[in-house]
Design brief:
Shape: globular
Order of helices and strands: HEEEHEHHEEHE
Structural class: alpha/beta
Helix content: 25-40%
Strand content: 15-25%
Length: 166
């Protein structure tokens, strides 16, 4: 079932605290919501996981919370050379606009009535700057800047962008 953002943040924060994780601010959303990177494990090799790249793709947020809670129950999984960096929801403002259709059971009528997905030029993971010959475009979204900061901090060997499988 989809997880409201406030509940997801609370649960991830609790898991992070239980694991002694570092929480690093990496930016803010267009509406001023704090975006932070949760650093699980001390391994030098990092894997960056982020969810919420598109507002209606809510499965990733639940996945990251579930992953963190399972690591609390099995902290030995973080004892190796690889650590996980988690950015819970890269576009929290848009994610919140979809919460009107969240329920334990998805009601397709409610989903379509309250569905929100911003235009493509407002997707943080599609807003990275481009410099290729005559194609030149800068980045303009603060969420993209936050994701870039997370990537620079993490320097991941792998990056996982969690989408839905609709």
């Amino acid at each position: 079932a989809p997880l409201p953002l406030a509940a997801a943040e609370r649960r991830l924060r609790a898991a992070a605290d239980a694991l002694g994780a570092e929480r690093v601010p990496v930016g803010v959303s267009r509406e001023g919501r704090r975006l932070e990177l949760v650093r699980l494990g001390a391994g030098a090799r990092r894997i960056l996981w982020y969810a919420g790249p598109h507002a209606n793709e809510v499965a990733g947020v639940v996945t990251l919370v579930t992953l963190a809670e399972r690591l609390v129950r099995n902290p030995a999984l973080l004892s190796g050379g690889t650590g996980l960096d988690v950015l819970l929801c890269i576009d929290p403002d848009a994610y919140l606009r979809n919460e009107a259709w969240f329920a334990p059971e998805i009601d397709m009528a409610a989903y379509y009535r309250h569905f929100h997905r911003p235009p493509m030029d407002e997707w943080p993971d599609w807003d990275f700057p481009v410099a290729h010959g005559s194609l030149q475009r800068g980045s303009r979204l603060p969420e993209t800047a936050a994701l870039r900061s997370a990537i620079e901090l993490s320097r991941p060997v792998a990056m996982v962008s969690l989408h839905n499988g609709e």
